[in-house]
Amino acid sequence: MRINNMxxxxxxxxxxxxxxxxxxxAAAPELHVKKTITIAAPADKVWEASKNFNGLNTxxxxxxxxxxxxxxxxxxxxxxxxxLKGGGTIKEKLLQFDESGHRYRYAIVESVLPLxxxxxxxxxxxxxxxxxxxxxxxxxxxxxxxxxxxxxxNDKTATDTVEGVYKAGLDNLKKIVExx
Length: 180
What we know:
Helix content is 33%, strand content 38%. It has helices at 2-27, 43-50, 155-179, and strands at 31-39, 63-70, 79-84, 89-98, 103-111, 115-128, 131-142. The termini are far apart.
């Protein structure tokens, strides 16, 4: 009888620990970043330069390569592998692609970045014949879901990382498109 009670207490303690860890992971807040830039060019020209799911390396300065691993470019379900110039990779999956609406949505599947639960939307909007607004937005959680992550794994680090990625990409896209 004593052994059964001990087993039951151990099982209860284990279950409580699992519930507590699950609660802590769920408690990590969803974070949001949105960056925009206005480009002096027609929307179709900006979209043409930025739309290819397997072409992010053609305008984002942090990337050494962008390789389609499965699926077809600009088709929902396609998976790309981004290789960073400084080392490391990011695997992303295309969730939505709207050619006429000039927008796509994707999610990170695996990454060296301090993020989890990441999905992002990229939209090109005409503001006139030679003026375009590009909006890059994302929602995510920090990768370290504990209640007290270290400074290099906290919400600020995750948010700063995404803001830096978006800013560098949008600034370079503007530079490339306006130079043509």
